[in-house]
Amino acid sequence: MAKAPASAPRLAENKKAAFNYFFEEKYEAGMVLEGWEVKALREGKVQLTDGYVVIRDGELYLIGCRIDPLRTASTHVNPQAERTRKLLLHKDEIRRLIGKVEQKGYTLVPINLHWKAGKVKCEMALAKGKAEHDKRDTIKDREGKREVERAMKARHR
User: Fold this and answer.
1) Which stretches does the entry tag as region Disordered (predicted)?
2) Is position 23 within any domain?
3) Is residue 43 domain-resident?
4) Exposed (0-12), middle (13-18) or buried (19+): which is 96, by Cβ within 10 Å?
5) pTM of the shown model
6) Residue 150 lies in a domain
């Protein structure tokens, strides 16, 4: 029996994104990082919940992603936890994203950071914001599933 391939190890996940947005399309982009950032990512010192992606001069940038420096960071390096980080994507994909982001209501939201072939990748989604009633529906569905699971668990005791 063949083993199922393991999913890429996740470094950080933006759980708020799925609650606040409907995802239309997903993209995977490389990240330009400094050495101290890679070491901090290996230690799990990253927060993605306030992050968002912008397009400037035909290039993608991740803003609001916080990578806390390790205390053992080198003295000659001046680490900035919330600096703007460049994302790497093919030019034709960026052009397609520019056209879609300029439409009303669409934005680029980072979903997670993960390792792939020894490199850090950022999975992002072209997303549209949810209205308040959609968020309430999401909460209702989640609580309904939780009730069903509780009932099934109580039944099997």
Assistant:
1) 131-157
2) yes
3) yes
4) middle
5) 0.73
6) no
Residues 6+ apart with CB under 8 A from 112: 10, 11, 12, 13, 14, 48, 122, 123
Those residues with Cβ within 8 angstroms of residue 127's Cβ, 6 or more apart along the chain or in another chain: 17, 21, 22, 23, 24, 106, 107, 108, 109
Stated as kind and residue range, the H or E segment containing 106 is strand 106-116
Each of the 157 residues of the chain gets a pLDDT tens digit; together they read 344 444 557 777 888 877 778 888 888 989 888 888 888 888 888 888 888 888 888 888 988 888 888 777 666 666 777 788 888 889 888 888 888 888 777 888 899 888 888 888 888 888 887 777 777 878 888 888 888 888 888 887 7
Q: For residue 60, give its domain range.
A: 10-129
Within-domain flag for 151: no
